[in-house]
Amino acid sequence: MITVLTGENTFEIARTLQAIEASFAGEVEKVDGSELELKRLPDLIMGGTLFATKRLVIIKQLSENKVIWPEFSDWLPRVSDDIQLVLVEAKLDKRTKTYKDLQKAATIMEYSVWSERDSLKAEQWVAGEARALGCEMDNTSVRLLVQRVGPDQWLLHQALQKLVVVDRVTPDVIMDLIDANPVENVFEIFEAALRGNADKVHDMMRTLELTEDPYRLSGLLSGQAFQLAALAVGGDKPSAEVAKDLGVHPYALGKLVSYARKLGRTGAKKVVAAFVEADAGMKTSATDPWLLLERALVKVARG
Questions:
Q1: How many CA atoms, within 13 angstroms, populate the side-chain half-sphere of residue 302?
Q2: Same-fold call for 2-110 versus 182-301
Q3: What does the pLDDT read at residue 52?
Q4: Which portions of the chain are predicted below pLDDT 50?
Q5: Region 182-301: CATH code
Q6: Domain boundary assignment for the chain
Q7: Which of 30, 90, 175, 262 matches a 20 to 30 Å C-alpha distance to 225?
Q8: Residue 48: what pLDDT?
């Protein structure tokens, strides 16, 4: 049996591998495929050893092997029935002959990284993980955790490991124990600007300078401004429909609704213009990018 685990979601691949290994009672061999020599291949895939007839062979990144991979199609029929072969690949070129032959001979399982539009999936996953860990969390806490951490499963897993020691998880506990991800920090400073709190903007910028890249922060802030404008232009259109059009989570967009209504099209246009000006300055001038971003946020705060 041949199984291919591919994709950039390393968490799901690692967990699938754990399940495969746990269900296998025989010998397990792990091989770096990128460094594998052709002369070793027959011993790996063409039968048992003196000590074991059933074997689980895990080969990682074989597609990076310029000698073996182009000819690997010829080896597929030779994989012994006594061997469970698992290929782990971060990315596969689907145009190659080897991939097309693997589609016929193997079970291919593809795992994509979750994005912001997968927040609902992440919430369902967190709820299930929490139950499995015996961690008591209500829907509000689950939603807040995903909002605060983001949809990255490794980070969510680490957060749950911190929370599992608490008798009962509440929003306050999450705010105390779990660090906010950059997107959450960006919304907080953007919201401070929309509320007219220039002092808070200044304080948060000093903190973000210690950990964030200004160009990444600029992109995230521009994204928030664009979402605000989309809500303002949408008028009476439900925020859930706007979220669907933009491919973002309705809960995250919903937090901007009141500001979009207050600002209207004209006000939202000014917010976007402030960040467009900052972005242009970051690309064309020698001015400190942090100064340009703070200037844009203060401009929004002052209306």
A1: 8
A2: no
A3: 57
A4: none
A5: 1.20.272.10
A6: 2-110, 116-177, 182-301
A7: 175
A8: 57
Q: Which CATH architecture has domain 116-177?
A: Orthogonal Bundle (1.10)
DSSP result, 94-141? TTSHHHHHHHHHSEEEE-PPP-GGGHHHHHHHHHHHHHHHT----HHH
Give, in words, the CATH class of 2-110. alpha beta
Q: Rounded to whole angstroms, how far apart are CA atoms 139 and 116?
A: 18
What's the confidence (pLDDT) of residue 181? 78
List the structure tokens of 286: 């020698």
Q: Which tokens hold the place of 148?
A: 């605060």
Tally of CB atoms within 10 A around 3: 17
Distance CA 138, CA 107 (A): 37
Give the full edge-to-edge strand order of the sheet including 83-89: 27-32, 55-60, 83-89, 2-6, 107-110
pLDDT at 248: 77
Question: 3-class SS at 198?
Answer: helix
Q: What is the pLDDT of residue 49?
A: 55
- Beta carbons within 8 Å of 208's beta carbon, 6+ residues apart: 185, 189, 217
Q: Could you tell me if 240 and 221 are in contact, meaning their C-beta atoms sit under 8 angstroms apart?
A: no
- Residue 49: phi, psi to the nearest 5? -110, 180
Is residue 226 within 8 A of residue 279, CB to CB? The reply is no
Strand spans (E) along the chain? 2-6, 27-32, 55-60, 83-89, 107-110
Sign of CA pseudo-dihedral 279, 281, 282, 287:
negative
